[in-house]
Every structure is written in structure tokens, then in C-alpha cells.
Fold:
Amino acid sequence: MRARLAGLAGRNRLLAAAAAGIGATLAMPPLGATPALAAGLVAFAWLLDGTARFRTAFLTAFAFAFGFFAAGLYWVAGSFFTVGGATAAGGPAAVLGLAALLAFFLALPAALAHRLTQPGVGRALALAAALGLGDWLRGHLLTGFPWNLFGHAWLHAPAVEQTAAIVGIYGVGLATLAVCLLLSVADWRAWTAAAATVAAMFACGEVRLGRAPQADPAAGAPLLRLVQPNIPQSEKWRREEAAAHLQRLVRLGAADPEPDAVIWPETAVARLLHSESPLIEALGKSVQSRAGLISGAPWREDGRYYNSILAINREGRVQGRHDKAHLVPFGEYVPLRGLLGVAKLTVGGKDFAAGPGPSTLALPGLPPFGALICFEAIFPGEAVAADARPAWLLNLTNDAWFGETAGPHQHFEIARMRAIETGLPVVRVANTGITGAVDGYGRRLGRLGLGRTGSLDIHLPPPLAETAYGRLGDLPFFGSVLLLAALAAWRRSR
Structure:
């Protein structure tokens, strides 16, 4: 098989590389077939071994990455079909364009690693370092989009995913790449190193989970009521439906026992609010909870518009606010608006302004929490405010844009990784798919599935001590990249 793949040329090579990338996506949530990632990367390595020129290696790597991203992010087209009309035709083009952009982040470093090495252990290590660095770059450059990172292939394995508490998800991905690519080398020492790496990851996770207490609610733990209204995106912003939607939210949150807080999802209040809005007082008084209501809503201040989380007490006063910092291009703002001349997908012609970044809200009657809106929860190392570590993380989102696809499942699992990295419980409330909560080990405490309407009561678990990743960030990852590069250079010199 290695000889046959290495012998392919021209269009056949590119098609085989794209097929390997498509197959590798089976390792991502919700399927979690990790061996598919190993098979795809091994095939990719063998295809590269048959190339001699930088250009051919780049095109082969680009085809692999393009297949990986196009298949893994197909659900992005759902937002265009939700808008409907002429916009729907742009869905497939948006997926292919996004896949092509992200493919550059992997193709260029992979081609450079190929150019500087010979087939064997050295090339496998160099490719692992290059693809791992490419993963990090695509998570940070051009606003960043760290979705379906290679480390996410372990999100179904409770033990292995715990290593993110030490090295973060980028470090987990780097180790995964090294293991998979070493399997492409016909050398028992490479296979032994790969097996030892996986065994170490399992052992590390088992030790961490073995020390974890039972995930039972502690006495006196705050009771949070999470409301998932399941309002179709096509109906969400209809003015004639606004009152009925608010009544549904209030009704779903009203039950005994009285919770410490009722939490609604992103833009649950589909009205533009400001400091003088009479609706704020009505919302605070309509919800029966000790600390009041936490909800997403669009907010206007000083002539700017924000996608915000509002904390409203029982007297109807805003006690805290978080403005979304990581905005979705073409959904919440249009980059280069004057040059591109296109409109947003979402309602309203105005762009949202970006908030200052991660924030911690301290409310009477509740432990302080870090506020995250929508895909702010997918960014490793950017979930916790640097100056005030919270006791838990709250993620409000609206995944109704993407329908019954893999997108909402991936979004929930990626947000769950922030709990493991930080040691903080994560509470997630969605308009639909998927509302739930996890403790600081990433263990699921309850969930409302995609397409369900209802509420979920969660007893908030205490935070864990700050993790190694929380203290060091991505420093261990960069150290590991340098180590792999040094080992590859040493093998080349020999």
C-alpha cells in the first residue's frame, strides 16, 4: 500500500490525498473514530514520500488539508440555508473557501518539513511538528478558527483528554500527530515510541481521574436552571413573535425548587436593549430566582452595538455585562466592508463592536463566573481573564443556525475541553443544541440534546486548583515543537 500510494502522480495523487483528509474527519465529534485519523495521516505521509519537489509536496498537503476541512466543516453551509433565498447558494462556496484558507496553514509548514527531511523517523517527527504548529497558527491568525484541531480526536476518551490539563489541546494534538505519523515508518522503534506515547497519555489521565471525587452535588451548591427554548432561527427575529418567545422562556424557567439563577441562551431577548430600556425591569421581575436572570441580548451603548450577556437582578437592574470579543466574520461584522460590499447573514445592517476580551462577572449570591458567548469558548487559553480567575465558565450560544448537523455536537465537545484545560466547571446554555454542564474534569453533569425544548437544573460543582496549562499556557506545546524539530534535525544529520 505504501508503494502504491507513493507511486501515484498528478490528479490521482491529489484525489488520494483529499480522500485521506476526508476519512480523517471521522475521528472528530460526534463519531470519534480515532483510528480514522491515524489511517488518514499514514496515507498522507506515504503520499508525501513519493514526491520530490516542494511544489508537489505543497499541493499534496493542500489537497489533504482541503479534504479534511471541507468534510469536517460542511455544517457551516447550514447558516446560509437558514437565511434562505439567494443567500443559500453561497453555502457550499463558503465551505470550500474556508477549507481552502485553513488548508494553507497546514500545507505550507508540511511542505517545508518535507523539503528539509528524508523519508523515515526524521520526516515523521518534522511533519508532526509542522502540522502541530499549523494547528496553532490557524487558531490565532486572521481572527483564529481552532475548530476540529487534531487533539479533538480524543474527545471521546476520558483518560487521554485529561492530558490537556497539562499541555492544552494543542499539546494533545501534537502528541497525536507524532503517534500517527510514526506509524507510517516501517521501524519497530518508531512503533514502540508511538505505543509508549499513547500509554503515557492514558496513564496520565487515569491518575488524574483516579484522584477525582465523585461528580455528586455538594451540600449547598448553587442551583442553576438552564433554559433551552428551541426557537427556530427562521422565527427568532420576527417582531410579532417576540412576546410569545419571551413567555416561553419565562414559562420554561418557572418550576420548584426556586433556583439561585435562571440562565437563558445567546440573544434570548431578541430586542435591542440599552440602559434605559423598560424591558430590562420587566425581565428581572418576571423570573423567580434568588440571584435573578442571566441572558444574552443585543446591547446599544454610545452609538455602538454589542452581542452581550446581561445579569439582571430581581429588581430589574443590570448588575453585570460581558460584550463578545471574538466576533464571527460575516455573521456579526463584515471584514473590509467598504471593499467587499457584502451584507451580514444576520438580522440588522449594523456591525457589532468587539468587547475587551475575557471577563469575570461577580454577582451577589453566585460564585464569580467567566462569560463566553458562542464560539468564544473554542479558543484555548482565552477563556479566563488574566487578572481574575473565576469559579466557573458560562457559555451562551445559539446553534439553531446549523440544524441537525455535526456542528452543534462539535461545538459542545470543544467547549467541554475548556473545563479540562482550566479545571473550571463549564455551563453551556443554547437556544438549541446542546445545553448542558461539565465539571472541572470535563465529566458531563447533564444535557438537553439538539432539538429539545425544556429546562435543566444543575448543581454547580466547585472549581479545581489551577491546572498546569492554566499557569503555563502554550509554553509546553512550543517546547515540544522545538524538541521534535531538534530530533528530526538530529536524524537528518545522521
Remarks:
- The mean pLDDT is 93.
- The longest strand covers residues 293-301.
